[in-house]
Amino acid sequence: MAARAIEILLVEDSLGDARLVMEAMTGARLNNRLHHVMNGVEALAFMRQEGAYSTQPRPDIVLLDLNMPRMDGRAVLTQVRADPKLKAIPVIALTTSSAREDVEFCYGAGANAFISKPVDFDAFLNVIHQFENFWLSVVTLP
């Protein structure tokens, strides 16, 4: 019996960065389904399966950008960790920031990892493949 697909929620307002993640994961040999939303409000609705997202699956893992319109990733992370139904979902900050205060905030708020997006295309692909290898192959997700 084949294992069910791992449901990944990508919360990213940059269409270019979202496309890179999608392309990098398309070539993966892992059984995953990548869902994309553009901001924190949509991310919480997706995770809570509300409104337009009522039929979407609950994500197994979230890749979260920090700097977004409407609701930033910091607020999303804080709300996810405060919600008993969502707090067990692993949240990985995937952001252009490498600021010490962002790293400290994310880990303090309960992020499972903090990844700074490389500017170089090949380095970016390598980061996504390393994410896949660890989080989707090695780790047992809740």
Q: What does it look like?
A:
By secondary structure, this protein is an alpha/beta fold. The chain has one domain: Response regulator (Rossmann fold, 3-Layer(aba) Sandwich). It is built from 5 helices and 5 strands, in the order βαβαβαβαβα. Strands 2-1-3-4-5 form a 5-stranded parallel sheet, with helices on both faces. Helix 3 links the parallel strand 3 and strand 4. Helix 1 crosses helix 5 (121-138) and helix 2 (40-47) packs parallel to helix 3. The two termini are 20 Å apart. The mean pLDDT is 92.
Protein traits:
142 residues; alpha/beta; Rossmann fold; 5-stranded parallel beta sheet; 5 strands; globular
Number of strands: 5
Tell me the number of helical segments per DSSP (H or I, 4 or more residues long). Answer: 5
Mean of residue pLDDT values: 92
Low-confidence stretches: none
- Give the CATH class: Alpha Beta
- Quick one: overall form? globular
CATH superfamily caption: Response regulator
Biggest sheet statistics: 5 strands, parallel
| Widest sheet, order of strands | 2-1-3-4-5
- As for the number of domains, it is 1
Tell me which CATH architecture applies here.
Answer: 3-Layer(aba) Sandwich
How large is the share of residues in beta strands? 15-25%
Helix content: 40-55%
The whole-angstrom Rg is 14 Å
- Element order: H for helix, E for strand: EHEHEHEHEH
Give the helix/strand class.
Answer: alpha/beta
Between the first and last Cα atoms, what is the distance in angstroms? Answer: 20 Å
CATH level-3 fold name? Rossmann fold
